[in-house]
Amino acid sequence: MIPGVAADFSADTIVTTIVKAVLIIVFLLTSVLFAIWFERKVVARMQLRPGPNWHGPIGLLQSLADAMKLLLKEDLTVTRADRVMYLLAPMISVFCALLVFAVIPFGPSVTIPFTDYSTPAQLTDFPVATLYVLACASIGVYGIVLGGWSSGSTYPLLGAVRSTAQVISYELAMGLSLVSVFIMAGSMSTSSIVESQTALWWFLPLAPAFVVYIISMVGETNRLPFDLPEAEGELVSGYMTEYSSMKFAWFFLAEYIAMINVSAVATTLFLGGWRAPWPLSMIGDGVLNTGWWPVLWFLAKVWVLMFFFVWVRGTLLRLRYDQFMVFGWKVLIPFALVWLVALASFRWAGLSGVTRTQMIVAILVVFALVMVVLWLWPQRKAPDRAAADGAGPEGGGFDAFAGGYPVPPLPGQALPASPRARRTVPPAPQDPPASPADVDAEETR
């Protein structure tokens, strides 16, 4: 029994561990094939199209056909690429993505059919398992960075730089949202966190942190509307531009495994893990939370979150890069910090013997003080348009070509008025309205 861990791995042997690891890899690979079909089918239905419907029953073998096509395509290597890093980059992304599920609990202890052998439905666990998940996600971005840099091309390098900034921005918000769970559960072990949600799933009392995590996980996995590292419009697929055949397939595989990973982490930390939903959990004194039933509940929750990924992709448009970074640094991270400080304060107050009435009074007082400060805060005046217009050539506004390359205006700057707008065409002269006498004369004529 590992201290600080709810699951008991004392009966596991080396053979058991190897079998679990192989089953996890098989599960992830088959889940990716299903996820690709699932995404195409859902987006097609949202766009009133049938989607994959030719290969296999309802098109289920379409993903397998695409995988075989990538396997048989010609494998090209860019002449100017750093060959070692060029080949190593996709392997890093896939390897780090496969590591996360080592600490994800699929269920409690299960009994192997036709035997009396029981083992936790989890490969392993340790007191800082959630930090291990964050570490794997952080190292996985090196595959993207090295893939873009080693290609020896401009667009992949820009995609790699974007990816670095993106992961730093949204991983901070994600980590802050997970700290809320650590405070309430009192542990960073995944099995212990699931055990702490016996009476109440953490997404209810920690709803702000759950929202921050949901937004951050979309940005962390480079999915729409946050797919800036591989934006097709301006980067022509970004860091994957110079990859083909199976090397491209590895990056593609890593992206979908990362989606499954963050969905599994959200399920484990916020949605009760493998526990059945509330009405079902009361049947037969929790009989649906024993045996192999929990594996079903865990997979159902993961695929609900996967549907959320697909729904967001089919609904929202890609953000601009400046909007993306402003949202991460100026909205998500400050909000996560304020929520974390508030949660830690009330958690400390509760452990110190402060009553619930005193907490409510303290909340009302703090809220009133914040509203007074916001009311008295001096309003920032809008920038002087005349001064901004005078910054460019001939007082006509911001000079976008001052440095030799066209750049967009920064806040407080304004582009000059269009020369076409200044060319006002005078209206054509109109004849005065005819009098009734002229009308009568014209009719008589």
From TrEMBL:
It is a multi-pass membrane protein. It is found in: Cell membrane; Membrane. It comes from the Bacteria. PROSITE patterns: COMPLEX1_ND1_1, COMPLEX1_ND1_2. Its EC number is 7.1.1.-. The chain crosses the membrane at residues 18-38, 84-106, 126-146, 167-187, 199-218, 248-271, 291-312, 324-346, 358-377. PANTHER family: NADH DEHYDROGENASE SUBUNIT 1, NADH-UBIQUINONE OXIDOREDUCTASE CHAIN 1. Belongs to the complex I subunit 1 family. This is NADH-quinone oxidoreductase subunit H. It comes from Isoptericola halotolerans. The gene is nuoH.
